[in-house]
Specification:
Largest sheet: 6 strands, antiparallel
Number of helices: 17
Number of strands: 19
Oligomer: single chain
Radius of gyration: 38 Å
């Protein structure tokens, strides 16, 4: 009869070994990615202005003598000092391409930041004035990113000196870093992978335990779910992802999110501890203390709506340390009483204590970790969440085992009904598999239909840009194309040339030979003109009636005139002849070119080309005039 007990002990050891192994792999993976070397460096020449500085303006600060500024250690961490501070920093040269660098303030919880950038410390004229922070909506930032980014590539002269005014209601940390774009992208991808794994892990744990609560009605699962979700929101606020993705325009929530959700996490943690450790049956006094500490965290949630963040977090850290030491003491006492769950539960709270104390020291300025508290939080929260889930699973497993023992006799009696149920489940599974196969089959058919529809729409869109008579591009295509080329000319500062071409006396051709011949003449002219286009960027469109328009990017006016004159000579030398009718034709054209330097500038070039066309007609037709001829 001792064999079941031995097998149970062996199974429990293997479960513990598997849990520790999985956690170790996860933590090694986390630290491997968070410690990846990157080609970036901090801005280390940072000075702070001492004394009364809140009422000063930028002009007053520029007049402050250098001896009033004191060098501050980097990354800047002034602890829980609420107020406004002035900082100045020198931006070091790095390489020949340092104009492309990105400037980042990696702490996302600053309320207001104003930066004046200068080409040098001696310059009196700023290159730019930038304002951002949590007191502004997220969409007002220069980049949609969790921290604050400034792109130096947009300045004609790379900034070498900056003055910063910073206001924070909580921890005053201003870690500044310079990046090359390539290294910034690499680091961001690794960082987001780690944080994404953390949030995925936390959300998965919360959802799984929420489902367990739905299926078991055990309050320990819902308390654990609330604890993990609140911790997830705390991490989202600390890393800046909450303001970026969850509440981007809720400034008031961003200012109070850490206080609300951290207190909520600890409230659920105290409720969870009281239920899981069964403190009510072990000691009514300890259970009352746990409930009292939970009530303290609930009061802290209420205080979060109106107390300043620095005062609120001071109260929270005090209650947090007391709560963690209380739970650890209870776990040690219960472990001495041979409560197995309490042994593993103490490990989870020890990890939380380490990360919590580290966060306290980081926020008050005692610790200044190279990567901030990110790695410490990843370690503490991941480990604590994992071990809490493991302990909860062990507790639930023990309860289930006790319940299973009482049900064994009933299960033996109902074996036949269980077999029938298994057969029914197998039939249901088969029916489900058949249904899923049919759904997949119909989904595939739908995808094929949608793909064919998309291809048909694309072909229709292409046909809508072709003139049906001449088979060249139509006016609709021309209107879209010159807007795109105008933007390119404005962006790249390149020449855009437009040509308006018209068949001389075309009405006379229609009147004398009929509209059918007139249509053939239009086809004849468009075919001859199109044959001269060699560059992929050039294009000819039917503008309307007997008018044609050329788009010639990066073509000077004189070059375009020679090009169009070749077309004119070709058309004049090649009359339309279908064997019965021979129609000689000439053309007139107007040429204009220029660099687009304002919105709708391409329309001005088109108007000049049109005026040049009318000048060519008024001057006797069968010739080409340019915009320069309009000034003569």
């Amino acid at each position: 009869m001792q064999f079941p007990v031995v097998r149970e002990k062996i199974r429990q050891k293997w479960i513990i070994f598997a849990a520790v192994f999985v956690l170790s792999i996860y933590l090694l993976f986390t630290f491997a990615l968070t410690s990846l070397p990157v080609e970036s460096y901090n801005v280390d020449s940072v000075y702070i202005l001492h004394g009364e500085s809140e009422s000063l303006g930028i002009d007053d600060v520029r007049q402050v003598p250098s001896q009033s500024w004191a060098m501050v250690a980097t990354p800047v961490n002034l602890g829980m000092n609420q107020g406004t501070y002035w900082l100045k920093f020198h931006i070091p040269e790095n390489s020949s391409d340092d104009d492309d660098r990105l400037f980042e303030i990696t702490y996302p919880l600053l309320d207001k930041v104003d930066i004046w950038l200068y080409s040098s410390a001696e310059s009196d004229v700023s290159l730019d004035v930038l304002s951002f922070g949590d007191s502004y909506p997220f969409d007002s930032r220069l980049f949609d990113y969790e921290s604050f980014i400034v792109d130096f590539s947009k300045y004609a002269t790379s900034p070498r000196f900056g003055i910063m005014r910073v206001h924070a209601s909580g921890s005053m940390k201003v870690p500044m870093r310079l990046w090359q774009p390539k290294e910034f992208i690499e680091f961001s991808s690794h960082h987001h992978l780690v944080v994404g794994c953390l949030f995925g892990f936390l959300v998965a744990m919360a959802l799984s335990n929420l489902f367990f609560f739905v299926t078991t009605n055990s309050v320990s699962f819902i308390f654990y779910t609330g604890h993990v979700l609140c911790f997830s929101l705390v991490c989202a606020a600390l890393f800046g992802f909450g303001y970026e993705y969850i509440w981007p325009n809720q400034v008031w929530l961003q200012e109070r999110a850490i206080g609300i959700f951290s207190s909520g996490a600890m409230l659920f943690a105290m409720l969870f501890s009281n239920v899981l450790l069964d403190l009510k049956n072990h000691s009514a006094h300890l259970s009352a203390i746990a409930k009292g500490m939970g009530a303290a965290f609930f009061v802290n949630i209420l205080l979060s709506f109106f107390l300043p963040l620095n005062l609120l977090m001071s109260i929270f850290f005090l209650v947090l340390v007391l709560s963690v030491f209380f739970i650890l003491s209870v776990c040690i006492w219960l472990s001495w009483k041979k409560v197995v769950v309490a042994r593993y539960y103490s490990i989870a709270w020890l990890l939380l204590l380490i990360s919590g104390v580290g966060a306290i020291f980081e926020n008050i300025g005692i610790l200044n970790l190279p990567g901030g508290i990110s790695g410490l939080l990843l370690f503490g929260i991941s480990g604590e969440t994992f071990f809490l889930a493991f302990v909860l699973a062990l507790s639930y497993r023990s309860q289930r085992q006790a319940l299973d023992e009482s049900r064994k006799m009933a299960l033996r009696v109902g074996k036949e009904s269980a077999d029938a149920k298994d057969k029914l489940i197998a039939l249901e599974q088969k029916a489900k598999d058949d249904l899923e196969y049919k759904v997949q089959e119909r989904t595939l058919e739908l995808e094929i239909t949608l793909r064919e529809l998309s291809e048909a729409n694309s072909e229709l869109e292409q046909l809508n840009t072709i003139d049906p008579l001449t088979s060249i591009r139509n006016r609709r295509y021309f209107d879209k194309r010159i807007v795109a080329e105008g933007r390119r000319s404005r962006r790249e500062q390149t020449t855009l040339c437009l040509v308006m071409l018209d068949i001389d006396f075309f009405k006379r051709i229609n009147d004398e030979y009929g509209h059918d011949v007139g249509d053939e003449c239009l086809k004849h002219v468009s075919t001859l003109a199109k044959s001269f286009i060699k560059r992929p960027s050039d294009d000819i469109c039917r503008y309307g009636g007997e008018e044609f328009a050329f788009i010639l990017p990066q073509t000077p006016e004189e070059g375009a005139k020679k090009f169009v004159n070749s077309i004119r000579e070709k058309i004049e030398a090649t009359p339309y002849n279908d064997g019965n009718t021979c129609v000689a034709m000439t053309i007139s054209a107007g040429v204009a070119s220029g660099v687009v330097n304002h919105e709708d500038g391409e329309k001005d070039i088109l108007k000049l080309a049109d005026r040049a066309l009318y000048l060519a007609k008024e001057s006797g037709r069968n010739q080409i005039c340019t915009a320069a001829d309009l000034e003569k």
